[in-house]
Amino acid sequence: MENPSSANNHPRPTSAPSDPPAPPSPPAYGAYQQPNVPYQQPGIIPPQPKRTLNRKVIIAIAAGAAVVLAAATVGLVLLFSPAADGGQAATTFYQALKDGDAKKALSVSDPGVPENEAVLLQDNIYKAAGQHIDGFRILESKGEYVRAEVTQNGRKQEDILMMTKSPDGEWKVGPKNFQKIRLSSNRPVKSFTVNGVDVAAPDSGSASPDSQLLLPAFPGEYKLGISGDKYATVEEKKALVSIDRRISDTFETLKVLPSQLLLDETKALLQKKRDTCIASASATARQSFSSGCSGFNLYESRPTQNVKWTIDEEPTFTLSLSRDIWYIQPEGKGKATVSYEVNRGTEAAPKWEPHSEVMEPRISGEIHIVDGKATLKDY
C-alpha cells in the first residue's frame, strides 16, 4: 500500500515559460506607412503638428475683408444717399414718355396742379395719344437743369428740363416744363372728350356763352370732342403738345354742330307741320301766318278758295345755334305746285277762276330743347 504522502512527494511539473511578444503584424496590403515612423494601426490618424498662419497671410485676409466692407458701405451710401442732380429722374421721365406710361412719368414729375386738373395726365388718355417721343439722349445734367436731345415724330429738338428738389432730396420734373391744352366750345357743353375719354366741363353758369378747359398734358397729339348731348356734335379737332414749343398747337375752339339725330327730328317736325298746313289750306296770307304756316301762303290779294298744295321737291335746311336755340336756315330751294280758285268778280257777284302756279315753299322756325326733347316753333 502506497504511502499517501509519497504521492505528494512526486515532483510537480514546472510551468512552461511565457511566450515572447509577437512581432507586429505587417501593414495591410496597400496601406501607406511613413518611413522612420512607428507603425500605426489602420484607421488611426496620427497626431498632426499644429501649424501657425503666416503673418503675411493674416494681413492679406484682413485687407481683403476691409476692401469688401468698404465696397458694401459705398454701395449702401449710393443706394440711400440723395442724387446730386436730377439726371436719373429726367431719364425715368423721358423713358416713361417714350413708353406711353403716364403713371410712371407722373411719379417723377410735379405738374403743379390739383389732382382734379391732372386728368389729361392719366394712362387711359395718354396711351391713346399719338406722336409720343421716339427717343432721347441726356446731354448734360447739372443741379436743377437737365439738357437732352429728344426726338418726336422724327424731329430732333434740344430740350431743357427744370427740376425741383424736395426737402428729403427727391428730384422731380418741375411744373414749368408742362404745356397746357386750352379747350373751349362756342356754347356750353356738359363734357369734352380727349382721346375718347370724357372730361367734365367746368360749370360756367347759365349766363356763360361757352365752356373752357385749361389742363396740363404730356407731349403728344390729342383728339378733341364733346359728349353728354345727344343733339350736339363737333368736327373733331386735334391738339399737339410738342417738345418744340414753336410748333405746339394747344389752343382749340370747338364749334358745336347739330347731331344727325337733331337734323332727323327737325325734318320730321317740319314735315308734320307742312302736312297740317296743306290740310288746312289757308286761303289768305294772313291766315297762313296766324296758323303758323308762313311757308305756305299765296300772296294773293283777291279772295281764294279750294287751295291745294303738292310738294314736288323737298327743301333742305341747316341749323344754326345761338345760346340754347337752334335756328332753321333754308339751304336748298324746294318746289311746290299750288292750285286754287281766285275771285275775279266782286263779293256780291263772285267770279271764281281756276289758277295754278309753281312756288318755292319756305321753311323757317326755331328748335327748342324742352325737357330733353326737340320742339318746333314756327314764325
UniProtKB/TrEMBL annotation:
<keyword id="KW-1133">Transmembrane helix</keyword>
<protein>
    <submittedName>
        <fullName>Uncharacterized protein</fullName>
    </submittedName>
</protein>
<feature type="region of interest" description="Disordered">
    <location>
        <begin position="1"/>
        <end position="48"/>
    </location>
</feature>
<feature type="compositionally biased region" description="Pro residues">
    <location>
        <begin position="18"/>
        <end position="27"/>
    </location>
</feature>
<keyword id="KW-0472">Membrane</keyword>
<feature type="transmembrane region" description="Helical">
    <location>
        <begin position="57"/>
        <end position="80"/>
    </location>
</feature>
<keyword id="KW-0812">Transmembrane</keyword>
